[in-house]
Amino acid sequence: MPEIVPGQSPDAIHRAVSLINAGALIGFPTETVYGLAADADNPAAVAHIFAAKGRPADHPLIVHLGADDLLTHYAREIPDEAWTLAEAFWPGPLTMILKKALTVPDVVTGGQDTVGIRLPGHPVALAFLRALAESRRSAGQQGGGLAAPSANRFGRISPTTAQHVADELGDAVALILDGGDCRVGIESTIVDLSRGLPVILRPGAITAEQLSLVLGRTVQAHAKKDERAPRVSGSLASHYAPRTPLKVVDAGMIDRQIARGDVAAIVRDTDDLPPRVRQYASTRILANDPMDYAHDFYRVLRELDGGGYRQILVQALPQHSEWLAIQDRLSRAAHRDLPDNT
Ligand code: TXA
Ligand code: MG
User: Which residues of the chain, if any, have pLDDT below 50?
Assistant: First the structure.
């Protein structure tokens, strides 16, 4: 099993930077989910990410930066709106798709002419990224970005603790920086700025309303179906799926089925939740608030998935835009049209 070290420790950061410079993979915390990092300027190291995850080569990775002055090293023809969004939301859970700089290795972008970039809002991630950039500068080199997908096997539940990363990837990862529980708990919002009109490719904690407000024009909450697929692997219907079959139902159905013993349930803490549902050990009660729910959702899903249940029932979510990002992950978790670990 890989070593898990406290991410706040300067010594741990130093080791992680040395390992990245040697071409190894590092597990690290972000405010959304844990990432699996390789040197974005080292194609051989990045190729190891795809092997470790079992991820198809044409699914591009996000490049993580510690400061936005590195943006010009990885992207070109950067529109003003990208700088506006960077100013407003970075560090934070927003990924921008931009035209890629010619120096970005094809293995990072899955051969596309665009690159996803974000500046994560987690102190350990920022310390790691800034120490890496500094090590490049002091060697007279450019760069210091980390190519990093979520640190799970392809198609599975994203990790929100250091232990989840160890459980998912084992010794494929050289070292894991522990930064505690991820604050957000679901992956970043992805907005495509590479073709004029900004379009959200994956909903997340930063909403279309927030982007629209800052840009002063309407950003659509969703790309039209299949419009830009399959460039976002998170857009495959069965992404983020547990192994246990999962079904979205109303609370009444959970009340009728929970006594069977072989089903587990994820419900929201509302006044009208049937009292009996609360009593079962196989019930997990999440907050009836989208931010708090997102924070706990993957952890609870992972835990129940390992519990040997025949089925996981999830109480349907409110049809409100605040719940859109979780709605999106939940509907993917409920799909089972791809075999395991594809
Ligand atoms: O919150 C997050 O974004 C986390 C943390 C670790 O930063 N990362 C993450 O990475 O979720 P990953 O690889 O699991 O998902 C990134 C998504 C993929 O669906 C990928 O297809 C999409 O971003 N993506 C990356 N580059 C892209 C590009 N050039 N064009 C379109 N989609 C892209
Ligand atoms: Mg992922």
Answer: 226-230, 338-342
Measure the CA dihedral 96/92/21/132, to 10°. Answer: 120
Give the per-residue pLDDT at 221. Answer: 83
Instruction: Round to whole Å and give the CA distance between 133 and 151.
Output: 22
φ, ψ at 7 (rounded to 5°) = -70, -20
CA atoms within 13 A on the CB side of 265: 28
Q: Tell whether the torsion through CA atoms of 130, 12, 53 and 136 is positive or negative.
A: positive
Per-residue confidence (pLDDT) for residue 229, from 0 to 100: 47
> Which ligand lies nearest the alpha carbon of 158?
2
Residue whose pair of structure tokens reads 């898990």 in the numeric block: 4
> Coil, strand or helix: which one is 250?
coil
Q: Do 237 and 332 form a contact (C-beta atoms < 8 A)?
A: yes
- How many angstroms does the Cα of residue 309 sit away from the middle of ligand 1? 31
Q: How confident is the model over 42-88, as pLDDT tens digits?
A: 999 999 999 999 999 999 999 999 999 999 999 999 999 999 999 99
| Phi, psi angles (nearest 5°) of residue 222 | -145, 140
Per-residue model confidence (pLDDT) at position 24: 98
Beta strand pairing call for 94-99 and 114-118:
antiparallel
Spacing, Cα 15 to ligand 2 middle (Å):
25
What is this structure's pTM?
0.95
Structure tokens at 218: 């309407």
193 lines ligand 1 (CB under 6 A): no
Are the CB atoms for 76 and 99 separated by under 8 Å?
yes
